[in-house]
Amino acid sequence: MRINRLLRALAALSGLVAAVTVAVMAAGAAGSQTDPLVTLSYLESTYTDTLLSKADSVFQSRNKELEQALAEQVAAMKKEVSSQTVQTGSAAAFTAMTLHKGQTLTGAVGTEVLLRQGSAVCSAASAPGLVDVTGGGELQNGGALTANHLYLMTEDGRGVTASSDSVTVLVRGTCSLS
Q1: Does residue 90 share a domain with residue 57?
Q2: Which residues contact 178 (CB under 8 A, 6 or more apart)?
Q3: Which of 173, 166, 175, 154 is nearest to 115 (CA)?
Q4: 52 is in which domain, residue-wise?
Q5: How many domains are contained in the chain?
Q6: pLDDT class for 89, splitting at 50, 70, 90?
Q7: What's the mean per-residue pLDDT of the chain?
């Protein structure tokens, strides 16, 4: 009986030691770097605020980069548009354009030009320059346009160069100014 009691006491003591050992190990691992203990108040106050401020700074820097890229693209598009061709209205309508001395209006095939005010000359690298639809002839490079005559561009690169300060022409078709 005494041995029984001793065995029971020894078993109880072993169980108590095992329970204390497990509790100490569990308490020692909680809150360490490998197994951090996180509370709800920490998440709601410190961590969330830190996370939001980092996200804001990333978004602000990215926004600045995008704004700068957009501004560069807008500037490039403005430059490209200023040097691009101009489509002047529908096929049935003429558009009035004003040229200053030395400016050249260059048109695509089928573009029509009618000189209304001032003086201008034909600008063409080869013959024929412009076809005078009203007079029924051709105008060669350097030839003066006649007021109120309709001229047709039969090849790309043909044009009209202003030889006076203010030249008004009516244009129907695709053209560009240089």
Answers
A1: no
A2: 83, 103, 104, 106
A3: 166
A4: 38-84
A5: 2
A6: very low
A7: 79
